[in-house]
Write a structure and sequence with these properties.
The structure is a single chain. Strand 3 and strand 4 form a beta hairpin. The chain is α+β, with helices and mostly antiparallel strands. The chain has one domain.
Length: 161
């Protein structure tokens, strides 16, 4: 019997809907508005969050209806996970698609939904709502932290070297 957790045993294609949904670590970084420069393809992250984003929980306030209420909301699919260039480097969907493991702070590894926040990975308390901010002003709100990787001194299993 294989005692490894499901994300180490199964590909994204083999996962159930429940397993797929549980991969979301709750960081909220995918809910941030990004700018993509047409000439270079470079992605610039902002601290401007979707109007449905709750800054304290790092969750969507209307997850079930998000695509209807926010037409440019990207629902992650198998195909999109493999092609979207803006997924955060710590995103579980991206990591699994690349054949990598989850980080120590991921709730599936730690058993605690708060570790993503305590590790400083999440967007908790770092965002502003897009409401009232003209798209032409988004460059004013560019930040680096959403595209950063976590502290390299910690291993994926939560142990320090």
């Amino acid at each position: 019997m294989d005692d490894r957790p499901f994300w180490q045993r199964r590909t994204l294609e083999e996962m159930s809907r429940t397993e797929w949904e549980s991969l979301c670590d709750g960081c909220g970084r995918c809910c941030l508005n990004k700018l993509e420069y047409a000439d270079t393809g470079e992605i610039a992250w902002t601290d401007i969050a979707c109007r449905l984003f709750d800054d304290s929980s790092c969750r969507c306030t209307d997850y079930r209806n998000r695509s209807r209420r926010v037409p440019d909301c990207e629902t992650l699919t198998l195909e999109k996970v493999r092609t979207l260039t803006w997924l955060p480097p710590t995103c579980a969907y991206r990591l699994i698609a690349e054949g990598r493991d989850l980080y120590w702070w991921h709730p599936l590894v730690s058993g605690d939904r708060e570790t993503v926040h305590r590790a400083g990975i999440s967007a908790r308390y770092r965002t502003r709502s897009e409401e009232g901010i003209p798209v032409d002003d988004y460059e004013t709100y560019i930040v680096d932290w959403p595209g950063e990787t976590p502290d390299a001194r910690r291993t994926r299993r939560g142990r320090r070297p």
